[in-house]
Structures
1.
Amino acid sequence: MELVFTDKNFKEEVLESKLPVLVDFFAVWCGPCQMMVPLIEEIVKETEGKIKVGKLNVDEAPQTAGKYNVMSVPTLILFKGGQAVKTLVGFRGKEDIIKEIS
Amino acid sequence: MIYDTIIIGAGPAGLTASIYASRYKLSNLIIGKMVGGTISYAHKVENFPGILSISGVELGQKMAEQAKSFGVEILGENVGRIEPSFAESDSASAGEKGNLDDGSFRVFTETGKEFIAKSLIVSSGTERRKLNVPGEKEYLGKGVSYCTNCDIPFYKDKTVVIVGGSNAACSGAVHAADFAGKVYIVYRKDELRAEPVWIDDIKDNPKIEVLYNTNIVKILGGQEEQDPLRPRLASTQARSEARETGGQRKVTGVELDNEYNGSKILPLDGVFVEIGGVPASSFLVPLGVEMDENGYVKVNEKMETNVIGLFAAGDFTTMSLFLQQTVTACADGAKAAASAFRFIRGQKAPRLLGNSL
């Protein structure tokens, strides 16, 4: 299932996660973000057990979005061992995303 | 199964083509990763008849909903390549034939799924045009954006530039002024080419200033000096955090080809590129589909291309060069479906409502 990350749980759920974590930084006002919702759901299914996937509302988690310099939505950031290792900016297709994160 | 028609592209043209195809009782499949298409980037649409005001993404989703209500499946992938169906047995002679006169096509998605159709309606639209200047790629997501509507809320009280002079650029500038403290429009020509309703809004808005006959030649950036959310950190901590977050470099300005207020450097925080699109037509080249010198697919008034059984509609056709709007994309999608019907059934498309001719 797709997780919801917040300023509160980000450290525990993302930075301290044993699995790599894909964070979908999104905003409710952003059209391409809404178009990505079904794609992210499929990515959750296809990467189950290998990658943790969750979304972060930039309005509701401004500290985390600010810390990672998110100035564009959608932005996907892959975290490994507490570090941001890959950043994808803008709308991307499912296959494209899976290729980039695996 | 063999589809009557496969529609490639899930924007307004493709979705409308599907609505008409379904009502013509043509079996059809939509293949397209971006459901809603380019209109999804629009903050507000107020010129689609019947709907006073709606966000672009909502309009696109409503069209998709309507298409699905007639039973079509939308496959969220890109098409990798298309082959005439006889290519398997004799690909050499297929190339010599020049047109696909048996009327059927094999469509392969990027993940290798294969579908066969008697006809194709291609409406794959455009990809965003880039400025192609130094700094553009480097600062993507760090001050450079291709979606004003998505990203302008990050620039509250900041200074931004919108590049372009079209409806997208001008409506984007008006929307941007709701958030930013100052909005420049940089346009290469001496007159904006948006609908006058947007140009009036720009003239009336004290936050917006237009720089005509001007181009951005370079996007400048550097370390962020002040961020109200984050006071400057002690250097060691800043360094370790920069490592953790992937750095803090951001856009700090642009270099222009003409002086403005005595300088070619314009300091600002965000660059929004709204200079239209380039046709996503390259995958049609191997089929011999005729295009103009910029890659727009040539169509006639029936949305026929030079390849028999292959119809095209929407932003990536020559038809859109006169007017590139959602309403025209929809109209052309409907015409393409009518042509597909005529091609498959060998007769003129019926009127869906009212009396027959």
Note: Chain B has two domains: 2-127+277-345, 144-273.
2.
Amino acid sequence: MATIRVFAEDDVPAVAALFARVYPELRWSSQAAYESYFREMLFDNPWRDPELPSWVAEQDGRISGFYGVVPRRMILRGRPLRVAMGCQFFVDPHQRHSLTALQLAKACISGPQDLTLTDGAGDESRRMWIGVGWTAPLLYSLHWTRPLRPARYVLSLLDGRATLPPALTFAARPLAALADALAARLRPNRFLREQTELTEHALDPATMLAHLPDVLRGSALQPVYDAHSLAWLLDQTARKTRHGRLRARAVRDGERLLGWYLYHVQAGGVSEVVQIAARDGSFDRVFLRFLADAWRHGAAAVRGRLEPRYVQELRQRHCWFRWDGPWTLVHSRHADVVAAIQQGDAFLSRLEGEWWLRFMGG
Amino acid sequence: MSFYLDIDLRRVTPCFQPSASGPRRLQQPPSGRPRDRPGSVVHPTRISATNSVDVDRSLRRSDNAIRRRPRGTSMATIRVLAEEDVPAAAALLARVYPEHRWSSQAACESYIREMLFDNPWRDPEVPSWVAEEDGRISGFYAVMPRRMRLRGRAVRVAVGCQFMVDPLKRNSLTALQMAKAFVSGPQDLTLADAASDWARRMWIALGGTAPLHYSLHWTRPLRPARYALSLLERRAALPRPLALAARPAGALADALVSRLRPNRFHENNDDFSEEALDAATMLADLPAVLDGSILQPMYDARSLAWLLDQTARKTFYGTLRAQVVRDGKRQIAGWYLYYVRAGALNEVIQIAARRDAYDRVLRRLLADAWRHGATAVRGRVDPRFARELSDQHCWCRWDGAWTLAYSRDPAIMAAIHQGDAFLSRLEGEWWLRFMGA
């Protein structure tokens, strides 16, 4: 049995070394850079709460397991909730048959938080977590995809899976471009002709914070931000360049802000959506602006996490859903918290999870 | 069940509040005399009904309907449907759905009688309902009792399957009165699985829920070019000559696609085998394939045989095909039931499989449908197998119809919200033929 204890700053080098053993294929520019990132995320984040710490497992004087936790804040129908967002969970490859993982999991959920949440769990982790009382709400594990240049998107999928010989894929590109030009003339894809009365401008944290109550209205479970935490979070998200440059736009109808969208621009590929938020009744208009923007920036398709409240609008705009790999897992002592999530009554965008973190590199 | 209405739902009183005295017991009306069950709603309603066959069309109709304001209110008498009411209910159905496909009024009446009075689960305490106004049937709520099991405990289920109100009475409270009568019965679980968005809103305002994961459907294109072309043709997005001209190119593209790895359905890489599925096999092996579901359907030999026979008679989507899949040791792996129709989207009724064999049973279904010429297959998402569906390149979508559920028992609702219920299209209203095909 390992000894489970609270993660301290002095443990950072040992945990970073463990990470390098568990994920030898992931290369940070240097061990120091990785340690620095670790320190920043777990000890200098704006929500730091000594009562919601990260955990390490120690065996024979050596760190053999780690569970990273970033505290967050939410409210359930106005009631404040302390949230522990699990973001890194790994065990020494030599200890994987031991109970270390289970011990770490139990230590994490034994804290004073009202909700423990993770949204990047693998299928094996899911089975273990469910065994210790977590649930895996399917709705928050689904992602939607909207092809914008369908032929190019299909080609990129075939290319990614090496299904076709590269020469054939390359040769098919002009044909795909022709098909996409035709597809852009079909009614559901005429993005540029829509909603000329709306305006857009760059989204800043102050605007976002001021209008959060408007766009979150209607969700039982909502995130809570202040100026500092939101600015920090957006800055961190912008630094994640693996999926492309972050683009954040506010959509207005005259002076009235309807909502916003944040996504990583990936010309010729799949652009990943970080968050789309809108006032009641305005989601479709904001979403359409977003599709047009992504199309103008050359995206072959866009993808985001399913927001159950907007399933009808997503259907109307020809989005398809799929379980794409990671599971969202939740644990709470409060039945109403779990019920809100299972019923799709929570605002849980990728900003509220671990998606914006860069433990696995930029 | 689906219908639409014009009502301020914020002002509807939830009628699903748990009662300390437990569920209300239903009193039968004495010798067909109407029994008053006045509603408590404060705003006029406008409703009509649709069948699950064409939910999109019903939604479009509802959009038109709600633009007109109601002109007045009235209260109907809500009472249990008696056999003598069947001709009036069939006449109402004909008025509400003039486009239905019944060969004659008599055939429609015979079907209503068979479904509501001769079904194997008939339970006088879980009846269908009618609304009566001025001595005339102005509303009809067909209910099918079913049986389920929650961790071994028997659960009485009421499935709402037809809900309609006379077009001339749509500005009355009739819909809400009937909905309240329906959900106030002694059943442990009230279900509907083809509800329109307006029905969902009313349901939620009354205290029920609409679990989204049981409202999602998956689609797996098998001949993607032909499937895409059929979608464009149906939506009139392409001129017909262009669509016709594109067919040979589509066939060529599909031939190419069938050689790609995820689509090599002609290759058989396991030692599994298939044979025709019959009710006896299904009944004997139900425990094996339902293992892991907290809320499960309950069948006996008669009810299952009757249900499969009824499902086979629904020819609107093609010919029913039911196959059992066995592993190399001849043990049950699972089964699939779907409607075969070459050159079209094929609808899946049920896939049931051992937890460790779902992916192979699904793969068998896809290969079978491909051999039978399907352009794509579609079925209801079983939340327990989201990973397997994704692995086989199935894409999910909300198709316009909602599954609605209500129970006073938190354990039943928890099972549904967690996705731990086995609710295939056989357990709902999908197999019914009130529209005549």
Note: Chain B touches chain A at residues 197, 209, 211-213, 216, 232, 237-238, 260-262, 383, 386-387, 389-390, 394-400, 417-419 (CB under 8 Å).
